Protein 1
Amino acid sequence: MNNPVVPIPAQLQTFLALDLGLKRTGVAVGNRLLGTATPQTTIRAEGDARFTQVAQRIAEWQPDALVLGVPYHPDGASHDNTARALKFGRQLRGRFGLPVFEVDERYSTTEAHSSGARDADAASACIILEQFFRSLA
């Protein structure tokens, strides 16, 4: 599954990226103009506690939109975590009223580990966000 080039409205400039995991959610922020992402403290929470912490990050950074990594098998097939991430994206839209852009995040965690990241979850969120920036039309 390739990420198509998506026309994103120019007024959307600041993005908060999330890399959803069962126990941890990586977080990064970035600005479209610079095209780079900065890692933030990983959220170590599940369920509603996760949404409380996401709300705190949204209040802190005031992003114009969210970017969510969606995992797939290497061949592009969906799996349980794919469905979990897509559901999380729908919940984010409903709770926060912000646009949510989904990015195929295959290999982002592997890339984060191979780069020696101390916080692979936050590094993966950066990789996802920078991949999103590269896809912008």
Protein 2
Amino acid sequence: MNKDVIDAIREKEQLPDSMTDSEIAKEYKGTYTAARAAISLDHKPLDQVMADSMAKVLPFMRKKK
């Protein structure tokens, strides 16, 4: 399992730093959580994609910051 994926799982699942990378890899190998973490490295979250698309189609609905 890639270090980037392990770091993403650690962040998403709020795992303690005391848990080693190999423990996380063994625990989460082949799980839905690992798949989502791997996908999130390459792609924006679906909510963000939807918000960006809506902003292009309906610019007046864009959130003001």
Protein 3
Amino acid sequence: MKAWQHFCTINHHKMLVMKSCFRVGLYRQGLLHDMSKYSPSEFLVGCRYYQGDRSPNNAEREIKGYSAAWLHHKGRNKHHYEYWIDYGLGKDEGIVGMKMPVKYVVEMFMDRIAASKTYQKENYTDAHPLMYYEQGAAKLGSMIHKDTAALLHKLLKMLAEEGEDKTFAYIRKNVLKKGF
């Protein structure tokens, strides 16, 4: 049944993020990551559009033209850069991405790794999160703050080139301790 499969998928993803967050000292974020996925607004949509190899939100978006589950999710989870979109302070700025606190950038990084592992399964490599990000990064424009984008890209590149152990150690010792 799709409900059980979806439940197992979100639990698997959540556990991966939790373990990764714990490795760098983000215990609270690891425990609370993506709790909104269990709310009816997100969970029921996930069950309805579950496919197993990609986010059900993408399927909902293709059918309806938008994803109500995603709109709910991004508005409640600070590890998504979309949560941080607001009006800029300058007269001509319009809507722009605000600089994210470092701990949420790190959680976003962990989220991207876990999503890649969840959907790529045995085909996962440490290069997948970077490849996925770079496919969409050009479209982000001013929706993600330049400093947030730079840190996320740096961590994804480090992961692809040096692996999890070195990247997580760097995050623990340099990014979180020094605030980057």
